[in-house]
Design goal:
With about 110 residues, the chain is α/β, with parallel strands linked by helices. The chain contains 4 helices and 4 strands, in the order H-E-H-E-H-E-H-E. It starts with 7 loop residues before the first helix and ends with a strand.
């Protein structure tokens, strides 16, 4: 990795970190949207957990290849007001457009 050698113990922490972000202090519920900041290991696990939990995701990255990979993991069809990918340059306006809801319940996972 670009950070050097990652130990097995460190690798095991990725899914734990993702699960903690999605379950504490309040768990993600089906139909909610989760913001994945970046497309690294924690976000990859978070995407898979969101699939299981029935939550939609919005992923961010400045790298088209990484966006394609995270989009391929999404269970819901792309562009159905869920499971979308955003370029970092467009982040602020796109997030406002996609996440303003009547219920106002959103959760971000990093």
């Amino acid at each position: 990795t670009r950070y050097g050698t990652v130990t097995g113990v460190q690798t095991c922490a990725l899914p734990i970190s993702a699960w903690h972000a999605l379950s504490a202090p309040e768990p993600v519920r089906p139909g909610e949207r989760v913001l994945l900041l970046g497309t690294g290991g924690v976000s990859v696990f978070a995407q898979q957990f969101c699939n299981i939990l029935g939550a939609a995701t919005i992923a961010t990255s400045s790298n088209d290849d990484k966006l394609a990979r995270i989009k391929a993991l999404a269970r819901r069809p792309p562009m159905s007001a869920a499971d979308t990918v955003l370029h970092v340059a467009d982040l602020e306006m796109d997030l406002l457009k996609r996440t303003v809801t009547r219920a106002g319940r959103e959760k971000a996972a990093a």
